[in-house]
Write a structure and sequence with these properties.
By secondary structure, this protein is α/β, with parallel strands linked by helices. The chain contains 8 helices and 9 strands. It has a 5-stranded parallel sheet with strand order 2-7-1-8-9, sandwiched between helices. A 4-stranded mixed sheet has the order 4-3-6-5.
């Protein structure tokens, strides 16, 4: 199953996804492409595939993205190949922006959509400033965009308020585990059980 995790910049979705990936087995992470510069804490192929503007635009032209968007002046996108390759290995988490989530929703019907909310605007502001990665103008832009993106939450299947990271991670893990128990998700396992009853007659 594909789990689409989204929310405003600074809501903590990336930290949340990393924690869940460390706690749950058989969960893959769909690495996105981006044109922004790599941060010192990041690694090529683990956090993002870092590409040039021209490389990104070529992938758009070849229609190889499931979703892509311009966010805060940089391109971000998730390739079809990444989803197909990682999705074959188990449940797949997509950590993407709100624009991208809407695109995925229009193209992949069998997916679970989860919106991460910060506990308050004030806390979001504190987190973005505390990262020390943006100047005053960029911080204000992120906050202005967040005020618009936050309105999208009613269109999602689940809402997680990321006040305490450990608690929010448990909630995300619960969504993943409960989805695995749905009839549609475990038809093969059910079929094996039913066959065992027939064989015993």
């Amino acid at each position: 199953m594909i789990f689409v995790i989204t929310g405003t910049s600074g809501c903590g979705k990336t930290s949340l996804v990393r924690l869940v990936l460390g706690n749950l087995k058989d969960v893959q992470f769909a690495v996105s492409h981006t044109t922004r510069e790599m941060r010192s804490s990041e690694e090529e192929g683990r956090d993002y595939y870092f590409v040039s503007d021209s490389e990104f635009k070529q992938i758009i032209k070849e229609e190889k993205f499931v979703e892509w968007a311009t966010v805060h002046g940089n391109y971000y996108g998730t390739s079809r190949r990444e989803i197909e390759k990682k999705g074959a290995l188990g449940d797949l988490l997509l950590d993407i922006d709100v624009q991208g989530a809407h695109q995925v929703k229009s193209r992949i019907k069998k997916a679970v959509f989860i919106f991460i909310l910060p506990p308050s605007f004030q806390e979001l502001q504190r987190r973005i400033k505390g990262r020390g990665q943006d100047d005053a103008g960029s911080i204000q832009t992120r906050l202005d965009v967040a005020c618009k993106e936050i309105r999208a939450y009613p269109g999602f299947d689940y809402i997680i308020i990321n006040d305490q990271l450990d608690k929010a991670a448990k909630e995300l893990e619960s969504i993943i585990i409960s989805t695995r128990c749905k009839l549609e998700s475990c038809k093969k396992e059910i079929a094996a059980v039913i066959r065992s009853f027939s064989e015993d007659e």
